[in-house]
Amino acid sequence: MYLIIVFGNLLIILVIILCSHLHTSMYFFLSNLSFVDICFASTRVPKMLVNIQAQSKVITSAGCITQMYFFIHFVGLDSFLLTVMAYDRFVAICHPLYYTVIMNPQLCGLLVLVSWITIVSLFYCTSLGVYLSSAASHNSHSGAIASVRYTVVTPMLNPFIYSLRNKDIKRALKNSLGGKLEKGQLS
Fold first, then answer.
1. 0.85 exceeded by pTM
2. C-alpha–C-alpha distance, residues 87 and 71, integer Å
3. Mean pLDDT of 123-141
4. Does residue 89 belong to any structural domain of this protein?
5. At what angle do helices 25-42 and 61-94 cross, to 10 degrees?
């Protein structure tokens, strides 16, 4: 499943970079979302796979804190990027004549930057809540199932949900798989 997450999202990023007709704000945000999904899954899945292989549940305090920092960071970033993507679609639908003026490259870059900065600042509030919550009321089995579902399944399905249902991405994938990628004929 982890390989599907990484390769599926990398494929989406690669197609968006290589196909010039996908160089729009929507696909810019989608490529950022794919990158964040790879990072998000990479915060937990490799350690989880090592633990399964070694049949161990041990993690150092520093490892746990680092893992939680990046997990919370990428979960929040995922949420903000989805919000920015929703705003992009709102502008495209409700103000189609002003879309290119409103969603210019500077604003798109700024929205992504603000998403990253906001997550760093929100991390401190969220981490405080984690440290103040009681570990005694936590059921480890249900927590493990929820963690796998959220950490692995969601990033694995995002390329399919946001990209493969999209006719532009499908056409670009067909062109790239048809040999046009090697010839540089994507446009």
1. no
2. 24
3. 56
4. yes
5. 160
